[in-house]
Amino acid sequence: MALSLTRRTFLLGTGCILIAPVTAHAAKEADVPYVPTPIEVVEGMLDMAGLRAGERLIDLGSGDGRIPRAAARRSATALGVEIDAGLVARARSLTRLEGLEERARFVRDDLFTVSLRDADVVTLYLLPDVNERLKPKLLSEMKPGARVISHAFDMGDWPPDERREIADKHVFRWTVPAVAGGEWRLIRADGSAAALVIEQRYSDVSGTLDGRDIHDPELVGAEFHFVADGAAYRGKVGDRTITGGDWSAERID
Q: Is 96 exposed, middle or buried (0-12, 13-18, 19+ CB in 10 A)?
């Protein structure tokens, strides 16, 4: 990946999602000079992502394709998105030379229109304002639990889950959270019901159960945990349900 320039807003309150329009901002080849990511940083980014064999990685602003090719060597499937036709051609040529065509491919496309819905990992080396414009797309399109890895620049008010210094470069990791904010009807194993209200901002959550504060709430991807009235609740957040081992919850419109 190279530094290149190639929108749903995720501020969640009590069941509130503020949606801003996705606007195409096609990058121009001359906007930012080509600055390759050092190989040590490439490998460190994939390590931070915890990239596994069979997962799908999308590299936005893929330059000469070094991140997708490195992902392919780890038996992942990778897509590089790059606006510069010359760099796309170079990435394809290097991929053929390394015999990685089955796992890594490259397209000349706009970062703001390419679909991210199937990505397990998205990697970035963009500019701060591009990260900021791209953030709503990452949050709305990527599935809960997917990871975002950025070289050099953060995501503004979306706090990273992890940051490292690799070869004197800053690298950040985020886990895409499920949409948990809102009002839910919780059903316990004994059939009793309770009103669960969750306040959410990115992965930070708080809330109440029948009007009393929940404790130690944690949301990692779709995995949600909290303690209330001395009992521990652990479940997986879906679009309209939370499924736990001995409890469940349904979203209230």
A: exposed
